[in-house]
Amino acid sequence: MAERRTDAKKTARKAAQAPARLSVRKTYKLYLGGAFPRSESGRSYPVTSADGAHLANASLSSRKDARDAVVAARKAFAGWSGRTAYNRGQILYRVAEVMEGRRAQFTDQLVAARGTDRTEAETIVSAAIDRWVYYAGWTDKFAQVIGGSNPVSGPYYNHSAPEPTGVVVVFAPQDAPLLGLSSVVAPVVATGNTAVVVASEPGPLAAVDLAEVLATSDVPGGVINLLTGRTGEIGPHLAAHADVDALDLSGAGEHATAFEEAAAQTLTRVLRPGPEDGAGERAWLDPDPGTSRMSPFLETKTVWHPIGV
Amino acid sequence: MPNTASAPEAVTDRELRAFLYGLPGVDEVGAAARAKDLSTRSVKTTAKARAIDLAISMVDLTTLEGADTPGKVRALCAKAARPDPEDRTVPSAGAVCVYPDRVGIAVEALRGTGIGVASVATAFPSGRAPLEAKLADTRAAVADGASEIDMVIDRGAFLSGDYLKVYEEITTVKEACGDAHLKVILETGELATLDNVRRASHLAIRAGADFIKTSTGKVSPAATPPVVLVMLEAVRDHHRDTGRRVGVKPAGGIRDTKGAIRNLVLVNETAGPDWLTPDLFRIGASSLLNDLLMQRTRLATGTYPGPDHYTQD
């Protein structure tokens, strides 16, 4: 008895002597061209949880970061769109695999950032992982569904084949930082486009976590570029950029009309916000969203080929 | 164009060697630090707009490929004359730079525009040919109407210390050029040290070069900032000593507006503002012009343009 007490005392003394461990806090940075740089402007902004507690500082992107992101996306386009659809599917499935390994991180993030209860957070993380699997499956099938042979009068075969539009700027849903984000980004890159993603302004941390998954799952650098910051600040420059081929305005909110007008100057394709936008993560839970988010970012190439000879 | 030097004095090997080895050594670390320091200058808004227009007027629009067709050369000439067909306020390029057998086509295409044709000569890019062949190469280009000749020095002779051979080759080619201006390509990527760059610069200047040019564009590294700095110092010192101004042309590796503006800053801070003219500073490039035009559009309209809106060649 006496001996045990001495042991307990010793342990307690040891614990008191050990220096307190320094906390290792993560720097949330941008994801551009496969690297994680800070904003060129050196700025950051505080991100708070649902009840107002400070969580972390996220990079506040500048116009220059946005331009760099477009350059990186353009550079990656030829390689990504040139891969076989099957290979793109393998890579998107790999994203799901790596996310699965980091379930706990994503769940904790949702609980901390949005005050979601744990069961609900689990559901949303599962749905987000499944969303990548869903679009991984579509990569080598959408061409058969959206394109095909056309009946024409004359001695010709006539084929229509969908091709990726190019560089797509995605304004991710503001109130659905993980499932909403995955649901808008995966369909854009599944068909061979490259993306510049403007993450949710109040909830950018899940997006940076997702970028870490992308960086470790064989997605070539530059295919998905992620900016955190003020949608109203960098959005206008991206919308007016002549080297951007399409905009997904899901999270553009009050700026949607202005961005669409700016995009019209350079004939940029636009996908307007849908019914899910502004309705939270739950609105994106539908397990079968179909092709409606892929087809707006495709160009149809039609080929005539003479029969016979 | 600078005043063509009077006939260079005859020199002996001994004298030339003494002159070149009498030049002060280059502090490599210092040159790199100075060039890096100058590259951080911020040039924005109206100053940037002026710098872009100046840079466009200094571009020697270049095509030096085995696959150069007459059509490609004509397209390049059209682009040099009017870089942006939609905007008449864009200045035309400094010159068009082609291989000797394409000079005739370029001269024809540029007639009436006032833009000169520069031709590489003397067995570009290696310079490994008999002197007779090099001279024939030069005379053919001049006869076809080239107003500027870009010759390469014999790096093999230079590196083995046969400075007199290099010197005499330059003076002979200079004679063959007649009224055409002579740019001497040092191919600094092969000269190994900045001391050699300084010696080669002074050697070329003394032999009568109107311009000294960094590289052929076929060897990497090409126009790095420390090399350009050392060459600008050489022309500055020569002007101080003799009153004659020699031009500098960096070529190869300058692909974007930022790089071009950094070079202009180097010129202004090293040789001085007198050199900020197409007569004394040129940039040899092919892809640079499109980036300059895109940045110009960006300043004028506020939106970033895409490369799809500009011609490829």
From TrEMBL, chain A:
Q: Which residues form a coiled coil?
A: none
Region ranges (Disordered): 273-294
Q: Any idea which UniProt keywords this protein has? A: Oxidoreductase
Looking up InterPro entries in the UniProt record yields: Ald_DH/histidinol_DH, Ald_DH_N, Aldehyde_DH_dom
Where does the Aldehyde dehydrogenase domain start and stop, copy by copy?
48-270
Q: Which SUPFAM superfamilies match?
A: ALDH-like
Could you name the domain of life of the organism this protein comes from? Answer: Bacteria
Signal sequence segment = none
**Key word Transferase present:** no
GO function terms (MF aspect): oxidoreductase activity
Question: Is-annotated flag, keyword Nucleus?
Answer: no
Q: What protein does this entry describe?
A: Aldehyde dehydrogenase
Organism of provenance: Nocardiopsis kunsanensis
UniProtKB/TrEMBL annotation, chain B:
Superkingdom is: Bacteria
CDD domains per the UniProt record, alphabetical: DeoC
Please provide, in alphabetical order, the Gene Ontology terms of the cellular component aspect for this entry: cytoplasm
Cross-referenced Pfam families:
DeoC
The pathway is: Carbohydrate degradation; 2-deoxy-D-ribose 1-phosphate degradation; D-glyceraldehyde 3-phosphate and acetaldehyde from 2-deoxy-alpha-D-ribose 1-phosphate: step 2/2
Q: Which NCBIfam families match?
A: deoC
Q: Please give the name of this protein.
A: Deoxyribose-phosphate aldolase
Origin organism lineage: Bacteria, Bacillati, Actinomycetota, Actinomycetes, Streptosporangiales
